[in-house]
Predict the 3D structure of the following.
Amino acid sequence: MVRSDLHCLAKREGGNTTPMPVITCIEDLRRLYKRRVPKMFYDYAESGSWSESTFRANVRDFEALRLHQRVAVNMDNRSIAGEMVGQPVAMPVALAPVGLTGMQWADGEILAARAAEQFGVPFILSTMSICSIEDVASHTSKPFWFQLYVMRDRDFIGRLIDRARAAECSALVLTLDLQILGQRHKDLKNGLSTPPRPTLRNLLDLATKPSWCIGMLGTSRRQFGNIVGHASGVENLTSLSQWSAQQLDPTLDWDDVAWIKDRWGGKLILKGILSAEDARLAVRSGADAIVVSNHGGRQLDGAPSSIAALPEIIAAVGADIEVWLDGGIRSGQDVFKALALGARGTLIGRAFVYGLGAMGEAGVSKCLELIANELDLTMAFCGLRNLDSISAEAIWPPDRL
């Protein structure tokens, strides 16, 4: 399926039938993604705030961890299946909420949600998605999760929560680390907008991305579907820009978390935890899980990588709540390392976006296949056969922790 899709894509891109490269890892998907998606949307995903030091550290600190190999151990009958907040999953990986996913590929949120559903892992729809909650619900057969940003317009937020419940979303992921927006130099220089403004620079770039353009011409979903027509006074691109600039709420506090928990009434996951103090407050809030995350290095530049922050948080609250990790995962080995350091689940954002922008739905499926295979083989090489057996002993040398 994937190889035939790649061949079709090659034919669509200017009639070039040169075979696409064999996809062996997430980096292969990233290279193909960079060729196929407009620069402003590639840069939107593949960047961090300010100097991007935290963005780079998220990946680099995973690479620095070494594994403890074992031999002459029975590796038969392995399983990477598990649970996240009581939901069975094919592997402990969820597709993270990523804004503008529908600008990486036409109807991108729908396609990613379908790929996740077919593979057996959760998909988390962003508040700032192009396809709306209702769009994704109408194109999937199983519940997905919804991610919430808190805006000043609490009436809109309340109705957004109600819409997620009406769509039978099975968990709410509340992002806590976007009360204000970190500065991302590339977005400012590119004049990021959705859809792209018809400037000479953008038109020249789009001319080299015919498949992307054809896909976008074939869909009506080109604005923020959860907001336009739902938030008061937001009916078009101009009013949306004005609304967005004013709406992120710097006053967000734990009282608001309690209000959201009561309004939602279901599984609540708090994303954006980087300190033991905040993790303890999250436990007291009654959340079902927390996500150790620095927003992909897109908020506070100079913050620790997610994997560096994980051990302290596990030590503080790991026995009281499910702790997951988001940020820097580019392989199944990274998933394994996060589990070895105590995480009970992981989120991938950029990795699945690479697949989506490279090959659409088939690319997301390919991303998940790659990560699952790498997780399975890494577990086997470390002499382990299931998730419950993974521990810090798998990191070499263990005493460095």
About this structure: The first strand starts at residue 66 and ends at 67. The longest helix spans residues 361-381. The chain has one domain: 2-400.
